Amino acid sequence: MSERIVGAVPSPGRLLAAAAPDTGAAGKALDLLSIAVAAVEQAPGMAVRGIDRDGIVCYWSAGAARLYGVPAELALGQPWSSVATAMPEGAGQDADGHAELDAVWHSGKARTARLWRLGSNGVAPRCICSTAFPVIVAGRVRQVVCIDVDITASGQDGAGQGALLLMGDNFRQLYDKSADAIVLLRDEHIAEANPAAIALFQCEERPRLLGRRLSDFSPLRQPDGALSSLRGTQLAAQAHAHGNWRYDWQYQTCLGELFWGEVLLTSVTLDHTYLFYAVIRDISSRKLAERALYLSAQVVEHAREAIVVMDPQQRVVSMNPAYSEISGFSLDDMLGKPFAMHRAEPDELAFFAHVWEEVDTNGYWQGDILAQRKEGQRYPAWLSLTAIRDTQGQLSNYMAILSDISERKKTEEHTRHLAEHDFLTDLPNRVLLLDRLSLALAAARRKLSMLAILYLDLDHFKHINDSMGHHVGDLLLKEVARRLVRCVRGVDTVSRHGGDEFVIILAEVGGIDQAAHVAASLLQAVTQVYQLGEYELQVSVSIGVAIFPSDGDSIDTLVHNADIAMYHAKESGRNNFQFFNAEMNAQILERASLEQGLRAALGSDEFALEFQPALDVAGGQIVGAEALLRWRHPQLGVLPPERFLAVAEECGLMVSIGNWVLRHACLRARAWHDAGQAWRVSVNLSAAQCLHNNLVHSVQEALAASGLPAACLELEVTESLLMKGGARLAGVLAQLRALGVRLAIDDFGTGYSRLANLRHYPVDKLKIDPSFLPGADGAAGESDTAVAATIIAMARELQLTVIAEGVETAQQLAYLRAQGCQQYQGRHAGAQVAGSALAALLH
């Protein structure tokens, strides 16, 4: 046995090392208990004794020598049964003590028992609380270490005794049941770990944790970029130097998940060996909260919006740099002072009293204000006030978020200006016009005053755009806008309604004569000469006027009626102004009805043709007939072309109607030929047809569909159209002439064209306008008949056929015969044919 004894009293570390001399897994299992033994060995009233598997005492502390009266040299290496027998007063003879010791050997679990040491020679009995801890190596109990506490001094009361009896259990329960992870490190390796450590590191079994370095559960670098291995060594040195060291550390679990731990690393010197035990608490939630708080602080610090925090009395407790940048107030200017003194409109106490009342009631308020900088300037701002409450719902702070919205306001004003003003002239557009007209009408109703709406349209503006280019048209519109604005008062509104149309509101006019005076001034201003770059222009304008309340009491009605009056100004020769009246409205309604009916007329087969015969002047034979369009209106009856052709022209139906006339005229002419009469049919061409790209194709289709020879079709264009058509129309006429179609000029003499110009056009016939014929009562003057004579003479020289239209009397026919005119048509010609058998072919 002597070889087991090294010195008089072995240290706890050597005691346990003797039981398990290797430093592998078995040795690691003893380290935690070694620390516990070392911690309690010197405590007064405590005894530590170790008994190996053979029942030999392998450790006997100084406390055991004092408590049991047996020196270490007599106990060490001796069987426990012999030492117990040798104890004074038979202290080791307690049957309960032997039973508890046997139970530990067999169960491998710690046990606590209360032992009585019998007194003698007047010495009182002593009560001993003994806790036996098994030392398990390789799955077997190799030693039992007993920690005995003398609890006699604590008194005999139950509470004191119970507390001392639990001392041994408390240590183990503290270790096993701790919510914090506890690990023991020996030579940097994990020698022991409690259940909380197994759970924290997500290791399903203890062996996955034991034997590994704690650094193995750290990422390569900590979040601040430091190497975990280097930083860990530095922290261990701090713990060794100071006894313990507390720090935060990021770990990685067995499953690879990261978490934050708060570590208390304690250095323990045991038998000249440095050990550490670490208590690790999971603080991931706290770190997340700290991170969120840090990010919130950074957001506030770097926010572009000004943020001010106040106490419940609205005194400033903090603010971010953005507030200083926006307002010019520093933290010293603001700290501890009411936020109200730096708000906008400080004199409007009632307004801000309402704001704070709403904050206290609803928890927040936000809106536009006019804020004030330190230097005194005002600026538009968006303010949001929020009441902050604690977990009990009590008001703790106010927070103000303020943004300088000066640029946004400028952008909004610019955007609103663009939305309400014409991009070219910068005049109010329709949107703003309607808004101002609504206000003006409300004021006129309230004051029982008159209001005038002037609707202006430039005459022949499209011709300027087409001939000179849109850039010239734009320059003209800008200059017209400037002239219009100069002609009215500041309370009036000049608006561009679209294209070349303008609408003017004359607010609170004194009467119709005042509106007429303004209209006349506008006419004079607009018709002055314009110098636009290299162009010198003179334009005219047509103006319609509607008066409130006589011409309507709503916006739509007034604008509509002014538009109608403007239309009649154009009908009256342009370059004038017209006031609205009921008759105008009736004509407009009729026009709208005609337009609607025209769109359905083609499909409903409501059009018809009448034919006016053309007779030879010398012999009186029928040589041809002119197709005249009629509209069999379902309600209005048969309408002549002058009732509806202008409407058809304006609504874009003239080409379709013209093509219908072409087809049906050719079909009737073919029927004449089939009946033995080779008459030529004449068809009038409208301006829309002549300028349309498909005119030649439409003529070809009509001839092909009817089978009429091209020479039997005569197409008529007016002299005025010929003068305006230019080279383009000349080209179209040349193509038609190439088809074999004959061409005639209608109303010749009214356009003052030179006869020499006819050489440039492939014309076959001239039609003399009726105004140049002597009247039945001799009303036509000598100059008129001289024109007719001249036309006939010059046409004969040019080898052109001349036909006079509108011949109504025998006297007119006699005059034409005398002048050498070849053909005529009109009422007198119709009368000549009416009684003949040929008349039926013309109807």
TL;DR?
With 843 residues, the chain is α+β, with helices and mostly antiparallel strands. The longest helix has 21 residues, at 654-674. Mean pLDDT is 83; it is low at 1-30 and 155-168.
Quote the beta fraction: 25-35%
Q: Number of helical runs?
A: 29
Q: Describe the biggest sheet?
A: 8 strands, mixed, barrel
Average pLDDT reading: 83
The coarse overall form would be: elongated
Strand order of the largest sheet: 23-24-26-27-28-29-30-31
**Alpha-beta classification:** alpha+beta
Which ranges are low-confidence, i.e. pLDDT below 50, for 5 or more consecutive residues? 1-30, 155-168
Helix share, percent: 40-55%
Termini gap: 156 Å
Taking all Cα atoms into account, the compactness measure Rg is: 60 Å
* Number of separate strands: 31
Description:
The protein is 41% helix and 26% strand.
What's the arrangement of secondary structure elements?
Blueprint: H1 12-19, H2 25-40, E1 46-52, E2 57-60, H3 62-68, H4 72-75, H5 80-86, H6 95-107, E3 111-117, E4 126-137, E5 140-150, H7 158-165, H8 167-177, E6 181-186, E7 189-193, H9 195-200, H10 228-242, E8 244-252, E9 258-270, E10 273-282, H11 284-302, E11 306-310, E12 316-319, H12 321-327, H13 331-334, H14 349-362, E13 364-372, E14 378-389, E15 395-404, H15 406-420, H16 430-447, E16 450-458, H17 461-468, H18 470-486, E17 493-498, E18 501-509, H19 512-526, E19 530-532, E20 535-537, E21 541-548, H20 555-571, E22 577-579, H21 582-601, E23 607-616, E24 622-633, E25 637-639, H22 645-650, H23 654-674, E26 680-684, H24 687-691, H25 695-706, E27 713-718, H26 719-739, E28 742-748, E29 765-768, H27 782-797, E30 801-804, H28 810-819, E31 823-825, H29 827-834
Parallel strand pairs: 21-22, 24-26, 26-27, 27-28, 28-29, 29-30, 30-31
Antiparallel strand pairs: 1-2, 1-5, 3-4, 4-5, 6-7, 6-10, 8-9, 9-10, 11-12, 11-15, 13-14, 14-15, 16-18, 16-21, 17-18, 19-20, 23-24, 23-31, 24-25
Helix pairs in contact: 1-2, 17-18, 23-25, 25-26
